[in-house]
Write a structure and sequence with these properties.
By secondary structure, the protein is α/β, with parallel strands linked by helices. It contains 15 helices and 17 strands. The strands form 4 sheets. The protein has a 9-stranded mixed sheet with strand order 9-10-8-7-6-5-4-1-11, with helices on both faces. A 3-stranded antiparallel sheet has the order 12-13-14, with no helix packed on it. A 3-stranded antiparallel sheet has the order 15-17-16. Helix 6 runs parallel beside helix 8. The protein starts with 16 loop residues before the first strand and ends with a helix.
Length: about 400
């Protein structure tokens, strides 16, 4: 890779900007979860954490930001452990310090075991216009094996409560290849989720992640052939129900794709605020990544200062093709070469030999302007992305 292959400096003004807010507590840590979540010991320190988030945002904005915020994702952990009043305070503070796009998408994650109708209405009044409910399964036996704190009836009630509170944009998270799950059970689970008529479904395979309870003591999971059969059957059922697959595990009704997640996959920028939150920002010809300390106690003590940062680094020129491809090739539509150049600051020639090899192996389609993974490429995504290392 050489200077002659580079385009002029990156122009941050053309790169969309989003905001991620992390709420790290859960009622109980799930045995498969590798996210930054921590089981509660006592009450949520609501006021203290809200104040820390605001201090953290002010610290981040010491480098001023004039771009509009196109989306906000409030994730966790379990953000729905926090009151509607707390969420309203956080969002109001963000709105005072940032420019919200007129059509901003604001998503909040909720656990069916922590549903409160008054809070749901307060979230909606505070500006949250999309809910993501982590049902994971609608089978009580499966939920018990997953260590979830809710049952099937709680999940249905959560959806009904969300609709009654005015949410017309609703995602459900659902997993397959669960412990001892049969193909018939996976199909029934998905059919039950579709019957709840969500606008978006995140449908993904349970995997054993390092440093989780399931990794240390693996449960009996379906074999690879059974998991693949579940995935194919699920894709067919979702398509028949009107859910278009636009990413590896994302399916949406028309007009309901997740704008926030699409920004990640298109190598957009995002501010990451909260314990363990990650962010990416572009300025001039520099792409910077930051991550906050994961432990809530450490974060609370340091929020608003550089001591809250566990990582603060620049993405090197050599790293940019891989980081871009790792995200963009998850999308069925792929990416344009114009997007690659605009988001990485590199010329198309940098990845031309890689694209030629991948096309020759039938893993991508590339017509000179658009690059997209083939069905074979989507089935071997890790291999495909690995070529960009």
């Amino acid at each position: 890779m050489n200077a002659a292959a580079s385009t002029p400096a990156l122009d941050a003004a053309t790169i969309p900007l989003a905001l991620y807010l992390h709420f790290p507590w859960c009622v109980r840590k799930c045995p498969y979860c590798d996210f930054n979540s921590h089981g509660l010991r006592g009450e949520v320190p609501e006021a203290e954490y809200v104040a820390a988030l605001i201090r953290d945002l002010e610290f981040e904005l010491q480098t001023p930001e004039t771009r509009p915020i196109g989306s906000i994702f409030i994730g966790g952990g379990t953000p729905s452990l926090f009151s509607g009043a707390a969420m309203a305070e956080v969002l109001a503070a963000c709105a005072q310090r940032l420019h919200f796009a007129a059509d901003i998408e604001i998503t909040l994650e909720a656990n069916p075991g922590t549903v409160d109708e008054a809070n749901f209405r307060a979230y909606r009044a505070a500006g949250v216009n999309r809910l993501s409910i982590g049902v994971q399964s609608l089978n009580d036996a499966m939920l018990k094996r997953l260590g979830r704190i809710h049952g099937h009836a709680d999940a249905v009630r959560a959806v009904d409560t969300a609709r009654a509170a005015g949410f017309d944009n609703l995602n459900l998270d659902l997993m397959f290849a669960l412990p001892q799950q049969t193909e018939a059970e996976a199909e029934a689970d998905l059919a039950a989720a579709i019957a709840l008529a969500p606008d978006h479904l995140s449908y993904y395979q349970l995997t054993l992640e390092p440093n989780t309870e399931f990794a240390a003591r693996p449960p009996p999971l379906p074999d690879d052939d059974a998991a693949w059969a579940m995935q194919l059957a699920g894709q067919e059922r979702l398509a028949a129900a009107g859910y278009g697959q636009y990413e590896v595990s994302a399916y949406a009704q028309a007009g309901r794709q997740s704008r926030h997640n699409r920004n990640y996959w298109q190598f957009g920028d995002y501010l990451g605020i909260g314990a363990g939150a990650h962010g990416k920002r572009t300025a001039g010809d520099v792409i910077a990544r930051r991550a906050r300390h994961k432990l809530p106690k450490t974060y609370l003590a340091a929020a608003g200062t550089a001591k809250a940062l566990q990582e603060d680094r620049l993405v090197t020129t050599a790293e940019r093709p891989f980081e871009f491809a790792m995200n963009a090739l998850r999308l069925h539509e792929g990416f344009t070469m114009t997007q690659f150049e605009a988001r990485t600051g590199l010329g198309a020639g940098v990845i031309a030999p890689i694209l030629e090899r991948l096309a020759g192996r039938g893993l991508i389609e590339a017509d000179g302007a658009i690059v997209r993974p083939t069905a074979l490429g989507r089935a071997h995504l890790n291999t495909l992305i690995g070529e960009f290392l």
